[in-house]
Specification:
The complex is a heterodimer. Chain A is mostly beta strands. Chain A is built from no helices and eleven strands. In chain B, strands 2, 4, 5, 6, 9, 10 and 11 form a seven-stranded mixed sheet that branches. The chains are: A mainly beta, B mainly beta.
């Protein structure tokens, strides 16, 4: 089955710096890759997603890149702010819809210091 | 839009009791709901996929008789932890999807078994 690896497990940056979180997946049939942000004790919230027919997607300070050949995708956060501090999870699924089950990475704890 | 409500948010009960957790899609019809388990500082592990009107599909290693799932309508799925024991203590989160939309998560239920 699918296996998603995520690095780093923790990431500390200064406010205003950029943060990059990387994930690799094993199943070449996976074609949908969402990123979720989870604050302590709260629900995971979708922040951005990308489908396999696109190499890059951007939404304000957040961007995701996908390299299908290498089977890895990355989350980029620019101009980080303290409120970006949270745990970020990448995920992969084989379907282009929410019907397909997601396999999550192990998470990255991001700490943005003022 | 796409609000998923989960109830209760926190349960504390004695070992041996059964606990029911509800997951509702408030403003959309969810043909598929997912149940996850999350241990502290760990990732989300899919327990089962629940489709309205049919039996749930459980992930390997998840006991179907221990974790009963019912998806009786397009807006409600329930997870019952039967004869709960301390090792069942965890954070349980549901998600729901419809059409080609991403999964939307509930707020989670923190279950503590004494």
């Amino acid at each position: 089955g699918e296996n998603v690896e995520q690095h780093p497990s923790t990431l500390s940056v200064q406010e205003g710096d950029s943060a990059v979180i990387k994930c690799t997946y094993s199943d070449s049939a996976s074609n949908y890759f969402p990123w979720y942000k989870q604050e302590l004790g709260k629900r995971p919230q979708l922040i951005i997603d990308i489908r396999s027919n696109v190499g890059e997607k951007k939404d304000q300070r957040i961007a995701v890149t996908l390299n299908k050949t290498a089977k890895h995708f990355s989350l980029h956060i620019t101009e980080t702010q303290p409120e970006d501090s949270a745990v970020y999870f990448c995920a992969a699924s084989k379907g282009n819809t929410g019907f397909q089950k997601l396999v999550f990475g192990t998470g990255t704890r991001l700490l943005v210091s003022p | 839009g796409a609000v998923v409500s989960q109830h209760p948010s926190w349960v504390i009960c004695k070992s041996g009791t059964s606990v029911k957790i509800e997951c509702r899609s408030l403003d959309f019809q969810a043909t598929t709901m997912f149940w996850y388990r999350q241990f502290p500082k760990q990732s989300l592990m899919l327990m089962a996929t629940s489709n309205e009107g049919s039996k749930a599909t459980y992930e390997q290693g998840v006991e179907k008789d221990k974790f009963l799932i019912n998806h009786a309508s397009l807006t409600l799925s329930t997870l019952t932890v039967t004869s709960a024991h301390p090792e069942d203590s965890s954070f349980y989160i549901c998600s729901a999807s419809y059409g080609d939309q991403p999964q939307h998560f509930g707020d989670g239920t923190r279950l503590s078994i004494l």
